[in-house]
Design goal:
single chain, mainly beta, Immunoglobulin-like, 6-stranded antiparallel β-sheet, 5-stranded mixed β-sheet, 11 strands
């Protein structure tokens, strides 16, 4: 079964999220939690990109003492094709992208087109849960035409498939 958590983006906004357990086949239970993607005030005349990060945390526990392998992937679902996304503030739009790597070369999305998903794998047992913390790397390009100062938001859903 797939469980998801939403994470929200906003200029000047920080939106906290909570985790919820998800059930998988076998004797493993996993949960996913995210930190908010937050960045400072966008300045339309600035030439350089604005970079920001967030995290996605996966925790899996096993019933019993026997080791249970955990494999899966994390997809980021939302509006926008091939990882190109838009923050909105009324009629105003501000483009941004989410990436798997700090160099911001691998687009993180739902695995379609040029976007990829983040793989996770490990082992959980009763006394030792499996935990993975993955960084989401974001970028808002500088000098976007028509961008105005405002409170921009978007909704992205982090999906754990395992």
């Amino acid at each position: 079964m797939t469980r998801w958590r939403s994470l929200a983006l906003g200029l000047g906004c920080l939106i906290a999220l909570e985790s919820a357990p998800a059930q998988a086949g076998g004797n493993v239970s996993c949960s996913i939690a995210t930190t908010a993607l937050a960045f400072g005030q966008y300045v339309p005349s600035r030439n350089s990109a604005s970079d920001f990060t967030a995290t996605v945390e996966v925790n899996c526990t096993a019933a019993g003492d026997s080791p249970v392998p955990v494999t899966g992937d994390i997809a980021l679902i939302g509006r926008g094709a091939n990882g190109r996304r838009e923050l909105t503030d009324g009629a105003n739009r501000l483009g941004y992208q989410l990436f798997l790597d700090p160099a911001r070369t691998m687009s993180w999305g739902d695995g379609s087109g040029e976007s990829r998903t983040q793989s996770i794998s490990g082992v959980a047992s009763g006394p030792t849960p499996f935990r993975a913390v993955v960084t989401v790397y974001g970028r808002i390009l500088g000098r976007q035409r028509g961008a105005a100062v405002g409170n921009y938001i978007d909704q992205v859903t982090a999906v754990l498939n395992y």
